[in-house]
Specification:
Length: 238
């Protein structure tokens, strides 16, 4: 099937990003599974047509009239399916359409790309909300077995895939919940949890993924605690 790359321009995007996104080539794929993980949060999967590196993203849209958005792959690099985790933004252009999809429906998807790449160097992985996705991909690809995973969410149902992470990481899996309290969960924002740490590990990289507010605040905290700038890798969801 031929690649296609013609989109209407989205007014909510700046020109540079819009031009970049317009240049991405897309292919139709059929949805093989579609699961609601919690309210307004979904995982959809489709056949993997390309190799990818854990941490990379794909561009997705439902049709050529809507500019594609980027989604981190949350499945492993050797799995036959590519999965993405997304939350529906009620006022958004694309995600309300994605949320209505069913198995067998078609979406347009790019080849994987991106430079937020995991490796086996020791790291702390820090995510807010759906920013957990690339770290799950890294884990499913066999990376980071000795890492620390810190996940921030507003409510207790925002710790997607927590059963997997608890099993693998035990007390190196830290959930920070800002609006609810629960057993084994830090009651507060992940930035508060980080500020409370007396010391941070040396010879460790810090990967940050999620909202710009979280990434900027965490980066400042890490720098103020003596972490070198080049040890901090960021992926901002905008
Ligand atoms: C590298 C990268 C990876 C990403 N990975 C993921 C991922 O794995 N999972 C995930 O869920 N998301 C991810 N995102 C975010 C994703 O690309 C989309 O931005 C998101 O899903 C919203 O898409 P949408 O079309 O529904 O909303 P959009 O239409 O793009 O709108 C986004 C928000 O802005 C508001 N908005 C839109 N237009 C206006 C306006 N004119 N005035 C005021 N407010 C407005 C909307 O209400 C909405 O809340 C990623 C982003 C990047 C850059």
């Amino acid at each position: 099937m031929a690649w296609m790359c013609t989109f209407a321009k989205s007014e909510s995007m700046d020109k540079g990003l819009s031009n970049f996104i317009r240049s991405i080539r897309l292919k139709p794929v059929s949805i093989d599974s579609f699961t609601e993980l919690s309210e307004n949060v979904y995982v959809l999967s489709f056949k993997r047509l390309h190799d990818f590196l854990p941490g990379q993203v794909v561009a997705i849209t439902t049709g050529l009239s809507i500019a594609p958005r980027l989604y981190s792959i949350c499945s492993g690099s050797e799995e036959t399916e590519i999965s993405v985790l997304f939350n529906e933004k009620p006022e958004g252009e694309l995600t309300p359409r994605l949320a209505k999809l069913k198995i067998g429906d078609s979406i347009m998807v790019s080849a994987p790309f991106g430079a937020f790449l995991g490796d086996n160097f020791p790291a702390w992985w820090i995510a807010s909300g759906t920013g957990i996705a690339p770290f799950r991909s890294m884990i499913h690809s066999g990376l980071g077995k000795n890492n620390t995973l810190i996940h921030g969410g507003r409510t207790l149902d925002s710790f997607y895939f927590s059963a997997e992470f608890e099993k693998l990481y035990s007390d190196r899996y830290i959930r920070c919940c800002s609006q609810e309290s629960g057993e084994g969960v830090y009651n507060g924002r992940l930035t508060h949890w980080l500020k409370e740490q007396q010391s941070l590990p040396e010879n460790t990289n810090f990967y940050l993924c999620g909202s710009s507010e979280m990434v900027v605040e965490v980066r400042d905290i890490l720098l103020s605690k003596g972490i070198a700038f080049e040890r901090i890798m960021s992926e901002i969801y905008f």
